[in-house]
Structure formats: C-alpha cells, structure tokens
Task: inverse folding
C-alpha cells in the first residue's frame, strides 16, 4: 500500500489522478489533498477518499473548508494558506507526492516533498523551468525519485532504457545511444489560423483546445506553444540533455506523445489516446504497469498521422523559450513569470493574444539577474520579472 498526496487535487490532473487511485484501492490510499479555492470539489474528495490532511492555499477557502468539515464531521485536519500546502507536501507521510499545482506556486511544495525522499510524480513543469538544477540536486541529496507526468515527458521516459529511467536528472543519453529526443505538440487551436488574425483571438477561443481537456492557463500556453517551450526546458533537466538533443515536432493528432531516436536509426515512440490518466498511471505504478481506465487506441480508425516543423512567426513564445533555455536558469525563471502574468492579463481581456509574446520578450530583454543558487534567489528573479511584466502591460494599456 502506497500513501499518496495530491497537490492540485481539484484541477484536471488532480481529478485524473484520483480516478486512477479510485481504480486501485489495493495499491493506493490518499493521505493528503491540496487545492487553491475549490471548496465544494474538495469536500467531495474528502468524503470519498478520506484523507488525513487537506490544505487550501487560499486562506478564505481554507476557512470555509474547515467550517464545512466540522459541520459534516469529516475526520481530517485542515491546513491554511501556501505554508499549509508546503507543510503538507513536506510532512514525510506520503510515499508519492503528485505535483499538479499550476505555475510557480507549485515550486516550494515540491522542494519540500523532495526533502522527504519520496517519489515525486511531476506534472508541474514550472518547477524545473524555474529551478531544474537546484530541484534535482535536492532530490538526489535526500533520495527522492522524480517521475514525469506530462504526457510528452512520460512518453520520452517510456521510450528510454531502464537505467536511464532510474536516474532522471543525471542520466547519460549518449551512453544510452540516444541521438535525439523528439518532443511532439498538437500546435494548438490556431495551427491553421492566418497569422494576421491572431491578434483578434479572444480568451474563450484560445482555451478551446482541439484535443486535450486542460485548465485555462495551460490551454492558452498550448495556443501560443509556450507550453512546448516550457516542456523543452523541462526535458533538458529531466533527461540531462543539451538544447541540441531535443527537437520540437508538431503532430496535430496527438496520438504519438513523443519519440526517442537512437544512433542506429531506430525511433521509439509512445502512442495512445490523449488521456492524462495513462502517464499518471505510469508514474504511480512504476516500474509496474497498472490499469488507468483509458480506452485502447484503435489503429483502424486513425486516418493519418502528420508532422510539421513549428513556424516561429506563428509561435514566437516557443522561440523565446528555446532562446531562454540557452541563456540559463535566470532567463527561464523570468520567462515563466512573465508568461504567467501575461496569460492572466489575456484571460482578463487586458491584453491581446499577440501581446503575450511581446510581454515575455520585453521581460527577457530587461532581465539582468545572475544565475540563482538557492530557491530564495529563484523566487527573487520570479518577483522581479512579474513586476517588469506588469509594468510593460501597463504601458500597453496606457
């Protein structure tokens, strides 16, 4: 029996994780759940999974949750605020911590989890974008194992030899005879939209992803392909790769989730229906395979599998992310912070879709912070970048 804490329990990844756990009562038991503001959804999960501890990063939501927990006489402890989430992640009671909090908010809880020596099922790409070296050094120091949950990184993981899978963050791709990591992406909902029309895109259209079901922020990142840029950076740290080791390929059908090309010309690919329960099940069950509830892929119903090179004039955010990757951790941290601010402003209709890349580029050009050597320094770069992004957005609206 493995005890599991799910950070971001009320989001799409969190709910999919709980569905996989639901299918295996003999293998997993929920120890803790953390969320931001979704009190009603959290109450439903408390009733079903009976966690010992829950946390809400919103103080207001935590107060309301505690009130309902007492009224319903549910036997669980409620922790308050971001510190409460971090304390839950780092209390050492879980064998597996699923990191599904979106954005920079997930960083401190995951570092806390790494210090317990647990298995980290990593769905929060921003943790590595902001602190890849520090994160893996912490995991190694405390004996924590990191397993990818992003569908693309899980696909790469599944296509690599076992000795590489066992040593993420410090593996040797050349020794494993890997020639190239092929990172696939759907291209988002505007793959065929005339570039001149992109500035007219509204938030409702941008979050309507043609394949995956995701939250608003990640859906916008998919539309700009910033998500693929962040995944490019994440892949570098996960697989100890150089920028030249990774190639981004647009694959509209999202059937092949990523590939690994080897020196002998062989290409290993992981295929499946686009359902996050598959990579979640891989991470929870590793090294064994467990049922996920995902429908089997029917090859007779696949009309075609197509592939394209990304057009940087259509996806400037992808180019900016790849450039930041070459510059280092300070640049990738600033990139992520600027993007979070810009996407939030776009979702609030304060800036145009095409302004997202302009905000990010402005922040990267003004970033003069040195390479961080601690989480506090990472968060300082993050804070400075957010201020710069907000200032630039203010000028756009002025």
Result:
């Amino acid at each position: 029996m493995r005890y599991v804490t799910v950070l971001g329990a009320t989001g799409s990844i969190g709910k999919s994780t709980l569905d996989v756990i639901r299918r295996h009562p003999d293998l997993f038991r929920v120890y803790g759940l953390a969320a931001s503001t979704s009190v009603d959804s959290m109450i439903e999960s408390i009733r079903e999974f009976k966690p010992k501890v829950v946390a809400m990063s919103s103080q207001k939501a935590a107060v309301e949750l505690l009130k309902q927990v007492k009224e319903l006489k549910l036997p669980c402890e409620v922790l308050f605020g971001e510190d409460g989430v971090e304390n839950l992640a780092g209390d050492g009671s879980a064998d597996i911590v699923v990191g599904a909090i979106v954005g920079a908010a997930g960083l401190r809880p995951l570092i806390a989890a790494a210090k317990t020596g647990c298995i980290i099922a990593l769905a929060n790409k921003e943790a590595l974008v902001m602190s890849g070296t520090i994160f893996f050094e912490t995991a190694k120091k405390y004996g924590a194992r990191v397993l990818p949950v992003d569908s693309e990184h899980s696909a790469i993981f599944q296509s690599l030899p076992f000795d590489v899978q066992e040593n993420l963050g410090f593996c040797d791709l050349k020794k494993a005879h890997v020639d190239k990591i092929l990172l696939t992406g759907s291209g988002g909902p505007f793959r065929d939209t005339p570039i001149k029309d992109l500035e007219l895109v509204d938030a409702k259209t941008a979050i309507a992803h043609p394949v995956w079901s995701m939250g608003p922020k990640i859906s916008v990142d998919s539309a700009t392909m910033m998500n693929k840029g962040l995944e490019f950076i994440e892949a570098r740290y996960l697989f100890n790769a150089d920028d030249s080791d990774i190639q981004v390929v647009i694959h509209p059908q999202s059937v092949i989730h990523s590939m690994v090309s080897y020196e002998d010309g062989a290409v290993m690919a992981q295929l499946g229906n686009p359902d996050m329960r598959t990579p979640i099940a891989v991470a929870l069950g590793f090294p064994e395979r467990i049922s996920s509830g995902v429908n089997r892929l029917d090859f007779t119903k696949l009309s075609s599998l197509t592939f394209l090179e990304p057009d940087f004039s259509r996806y400037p955010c992808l180019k900016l992310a790849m450039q930041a990757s070459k510059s280092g951790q300070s640049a990738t941290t600033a990139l992520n912070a600027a993007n979070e601010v810009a996407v939030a402003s776009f979702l609030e209709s304060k800036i145009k879709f095409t302004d997202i890349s302009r905000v990010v580029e402005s922040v990267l050009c003004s970033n003069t912070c040195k390479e961080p050597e601690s989480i506090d320094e990472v968060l300082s770069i993050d804070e400075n970048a957010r201020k710069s992004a907000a200032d630039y957005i203010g000028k756009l609206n002025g």
Summary: The CA atoms of residues 121 and 147 lie 5 Å apart. The mean pLDDT is 95. The longest strand covers residues 28-35. The chain has 16 helices and eleven strands.
